[in-house]
Amino acid sequence: MVCGCEKCGTLMVQEQKGIQCRCVCPNCGNHCDICIGFERPLSKEELAQLLANLRGEKADA
Question: Is 13 buried (19+), middle (13-18) or exposed (0-12) by CB count in 10 A?
Fold first, then answer.
Protein backbone atom coordinates (compact mmCIF):
# COMPACT_ATOMS: atom_id res chain seq x y z
CA MET A 1 0.00 0.00 0.00
CA VAL A 2 1.21 3.50 -0.77
CA CYS A 3 0.13 6.24 1.63
CA GLY A 4 0.41 9.99 1.57
CA CYS A 5 1.98 11.67 4.59
CA GLU A 6 -0.71 13.25 6.75
CA LYS A 7 1.62 16.16 7.52
CA CYS A 8 3.04 17.11 4.11
CA GLY A 9 1.31 14.88 1.53
CA THR A 10 4.48 13.22 0.19
CA LEU A 11 4.18 9.51 -0.68
CA MET A 12 5.52 7.44 2.19
CA VAL A 13 7.69 4.33 1.92
CA GLN A 14 7.50 1.20 4.06
CA GLU A 15 10.32 0.47 6.47
CA GLN A 16 10.78 -2.97 8.03
CA LYS A 17 12.84 -3.70 11.12
CA GLY A 18 12.54 -7.34 12.08
CA ILE A 19 8.84 -8.12 12.39
CA GLN A 20 7.87 -4.46 12.85
CA CYS A 21 6.79 -2.44 9.85
CA ARG A 22 5.80 1.20 9.40
CA CYS A 23 5.60 3.89 6.75
CA VAL A 24 8.10 6.74 6.79
CA CYS A 25 7.90 10.03 4.90
CA PRO A 26 11.15 10.69 3.00
CA ASN A 27 10.38 14.43 3.02
CA CYS A 28 9.57 15.30 6.65
CA GLY A 29 10.35 12.08 8.56
CA ASN A 30 6.80 11.57 9.83
CA HIS A 31 5.94 7.90 10.43
CA CYS A 32 2.86 5.80 11.12
CA ASP A 33 1.59 2.23 10.95
CA ILE A 34 -2.11 2.86 10.32
CA CYS A 35 -2.21 1.08 6.93
CA ILE A 36 0.01 -1.84 7.93
CA GLY A 37 -2.71 -3.93 9.55
CA PHE A 38 -4.31 -5.21 12.68
CA GLU A 39 -3.52 -8.00 15.13
CA ARG A 40 -6.52 -10.01 13.86
CA PRO A 41 -8.73 -10.15 10.80
CA LEU A 42 -11.57 -7.61 10.83
CA SER A 43 -15.18 -8.78 10.94
CA LYS A 44 -17.61 -7.98 8.12
CA GLU A 45 -19.14 -5.24 10.27
CA GLU A 46 -15.74 -3.74 11.12
CA LEU A 47 -14.76 -3.71 7.44
CA ALA A 48 -18.04 -2.01 6.52
CA GLN A 49 -17.47 0.63 9.21
CA LEU A 50 -13.89 1.21 8.09
CA LEU A 51 -14.99 1.66 4.48
CA ALA A 52 -17.80 4.00 5.53
CA ASN A 53 -15.35 6.05 7.60
CA LEU A 54 -12.98 6.36 4.66
CA ARG A 55 -15.87 7.54 2.48
CA GLY A 56 -17.17 9.89 5.16
CA GLU A 57 -20.45 7.99 5.42
CA LYS A 58 -22.38 6.23 8.15
CA ALA A 59 -22.24 2.41 7.96
CA ASP A 60 -25.48 0.46 7.56
CA ALA A 61 -26.42 -1.50 10.67
Answer: exposed
